[in-house]
Amino acid sequence: MPTRSAHFAGLVAAQPQNELFRFSLAQALLNEGRGAEAEPHLRICCERRADWMMPRILLGKLLLQLDRPAEARSLLAAALTLALAQEHEDPAAELQALLDGLPPSA
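== Tetratricopeptide repeat protein ==
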């Protein structure tokens, strides 16, 4: 049985402009522990939709796992701005906590 990432990879191959397929592929890759492969798909989602909070959250968290806090900070801050504007209280609180936990130099 094919993995979820294989399923979504096929959909992305057929429709590379579809951000929802890319986001689903990125989520599947993250769930399979393949964050490095998820990164470009999350970046594309962020680039194509300025109002989409979730790819920024996932990419920011991934960059923290990859020990790239300086890169993560800007994405998490952007996601926080979106969370507040869109009135998503729980993600806003989580994002604020993540940002507060970053070292000052990040």
